[in-house]
Design a protein that fits this description.
Blueprint (H helix, E strand, L loop, with lengths): L1 E5 L26 H8 L8 E5 L16 E2 L6 E2 L27 E4 L7 E4 L27 H106 L6 E3 H4 L15 H7 L5 E3 H12 L8 H4 L8 H8 L5 H9 L5 H20 L18 H5 L6 H39 L16 E4 L3 E6 L3 E6 L6 E9 L9 E5 L11 E8 L4 E9 L2 E8 L20
Parallel strand pairs: 14-16
Antiparallel strand pairs: 1-2, 3-4, 5-6, 7-8, 9-10, 10-11, 11-12, 12-13, 13-14, 15-16
Helix pairs in contact: 2-5, 2-11, 8-9
């Protein structure tokens, strides 16, 4: 049952169904330079036909020698050669029936001259469906299959030529990117060296300005402390003088007979100085306040007595001598502070409620005039506390430290100027140190075998879908933001190159993104594909919280194969 069929110079070993290698996660074609050249040479390689059993590839032809018995490929049996393709399955692996449907586990080889050779299951042989583009699988089914291999080969070559053109142009751009990075790296290294040299000088400057600042601040502190000390001394002297004046005034008030001493009897005229709480200052209490003496002179009064009684003492002179025109009236102050009239006024108003309005006003005026001495004079227990002169409006200002003198202010200004210069130099040093760190990181970063991916370092690329805007900032992070507004979600920060061992720079891994609800942290794998432009072309979430993204870039383009020779250059295999 030997048959003759067109031979192909491109036959597969083992049992592949296609010459194109599979891609991992995306359906986009990715082929190596050797494979691309291999496929582009297809149209010049069809030349001779080799006699072989139906369904057997050129690769396996040496197992099928019609001059001797056939041994199954799994060595399970040896049969006469005329049992090959006799529509009966003799071998366990089905290798004796490559051209029939007798063995369900056998494979039929489609020569597909003009296109790609292909293996199909032997079960599809003569099943009424054209599986091979050359129709050789339906040789005995009564179905006439149109040979579409040449058309498919033409389209395949066009696609491959387009891919080859993209690869050539992308690789050309890649070489430019490599050269650009070499120049940029040299410039960055030179700048780094300059910064590192300037850093020492700036550090010395910062240290010198620190010393100047500390010295200026020391002088500033001394001047300010001296200013405050003088002011506090003045305040203390002023308060001492005020106390002396108050003590002298009180002594004069108590010295009723003006004999130059205050006696126990004179002191007893001030019951507010009572010490046992009975409302009366007894002779014994008065004598105790006078230090056991019956009378005391002005000096002893100031030194010993005034300190003990000044908090309780009520002046006899101030209320009666209070000048109405020069200061607010007590009644007016009381009315401003308390809108409700004082109790005595309320009683008078309740008694006069039934009188005429004019009489009420007159009565109220008389009551105010008559009541003034009661308010200002000695009061019963429910009366307001003793009158004290109100604090002048400038009291708070008097307590404030006066402005610094010219010399002290000069020290303050000098210290502030030294601080400003030091802080400016220190800020410049921090900026320089950050620039040095950034340059060192960028120069030492792994941007690919020749630095071709370096241009992505400071860029970001976006892809807008129906729901989200995806943003990829290579070597930094990946994020996702709702299209209709909202906060971005971190899909991962730069982790490492994540391609297979033989092609490490074909993928990037971004990790430790925002955590999913009751799930892991989000992460993203970015596949790098050859292209003339840099653009994010696809994104998906194949598993929960794990994203896949495609980035086309010239940096991912392999070196293309040489241009295929003209058809006339090869007339044989």
């Amino acid at each position: 049952m030997l048959t003759s069929a067109p031979a192909s110079s491109l036959e597969h070993s083992a049992s592949p169904r296609s010459l194109l290698p599979p891609t991992d996660h995306f359906p986009r074609l990715q082929i190596s330079g050797k494979m691309l050249l291999f496929l582009l040479l297809l149209p010049v390689c069809w030349a001779v036909e080799v006699k072989r059993p139906r369904g057997v590839s050129l690769t396996n032809l040496h197992f099928y020698d019609e001059s001797k018995p056939f041994t199954c490929l799994d060595s399970s049996a040896t049969i006469p050669f005329d049992h090959v393709n006799d529509d009966y399955c003799d071998c366990k692996d089905g290798s004796d029936e490559p051209g029939t449907a007798a063995c369900p586990n056998s494979s039929f080889h489609c020569t597909n001259t003009g296109y790609k050779p292909l293996y199909i299951s032997s079960r599809w042989v003569n099943d009424g469906v054209c599986d091979c583009c050359d129709g050789t699988d339906e040789y005995n089914s009564g179905i006439v299959c149109e040979n579409s291999c040449k058309e498919k080969g033409r389209k395949e070559r066009e696609t491959l030529q387009q891919m080859a053109e993209v690869t050539r142009e992308g690789f050309r751009l890649k070489k430019i990117l490599i050269e650009d990075w070499k120049k940029a790296r040299e410039e960055k290294q030179q700048k780094l060296a300059e910064l590192q040299a300037g850093k020492k000088s700036l550090e010395d400057q910062v240290e010198m300005l620190r010393m100047v600042k500390e010295e200026a601040e020391k002088l500033e502190k001394e001047a300010k402390d001296q200013h405050q000390k003088l002011w506090e001394e003045q305040q203390a002297a002023s308060k001492a003088q005020q106390e002396q004046e108050l003590a002298t005034s009180a002594f004069q008030e108590l010295d009723d007979d003006m004999d130059g001493v205050v006696s126990v009897a004179e002191l007893q005229t001030h019951p507010e100085l009572d010490t046992d709480g009975d409302g009366v200052l007894s002779e014994g209490e008065a004598q105790t306040l006078l230090g056991g003496d019956m009378q005391i002179d002005a000096t002893a009064f100031h030194d010993r007595v005034w300190v003990a009684i000044k908090d309780k003492y009520q002046s006899e002179v101030l209320p009666t001598d209070w000048p109405v025109p020069s200061a607010p009236d007590l009644t007016e102050l009381t009315e401003e502070q308390r809108p409700v009239p004082s109790p005595p006024m309320e009683e008078e108003e309740e008694e006069d409620e039934e009188e005429e309005p004019e009489e009420e006003e007159e009565e109220e005026e008389e009551e105010e005039e008559e009541g003034s001495p009661q308010v200002q004079g000695e009061q019963p227990k429910e009366a307001p506390p003793p009158l004290m002169p109100p604090k002048p409006a400038s009291a708070t200002e008097e307590d404030k430290m006066p402005p610094y003198d010219e010399q002290t202010q000069a020290f303050i200004d000098a210290a502030q100027e030294a601080r400003n210069k030091f802080e400016e130099a220190e800020r410049s040093l921090r900026d320089m140190e950050e620039s040095i760190r950034n340059l060192e990181q960028e120069i030492s970063f792994d941007f690919g075998p020749n630095g071709e991916f370096a241009y992505l370092y400071s860029q970001c690329y976006e892809l807008t879908t129906n729901e989200y805007i995806y943003r990829l900032c290579p070597f930094k992070l990946v994020s996702q933001k709702p299209k209709l507004g909202g906060s971005p979600t971190n899909l991962g920060t730069w982790g490492s190159w994540a391609g297979p061992e033989h092609d490490k720079f074909s993928a990037m891994k971004y990790e430790q993104g925002t955590g999913c609800w009751q799930g892991p942290n989000r992460s993203t794998t970015v596949r790098l594909l050859c292209g003339k432009e840099t653009v994010v072309t696809n994104t998906m979430e194949p598993s929960r919280c794990e994203y896949l993204m495609e980035l086309m870039t010239p940096a991912a383009c392999p070196e293309p194969p040489p241009e295929p020779p003209a058809d006339g250059d090869h007339d044989e295999l």
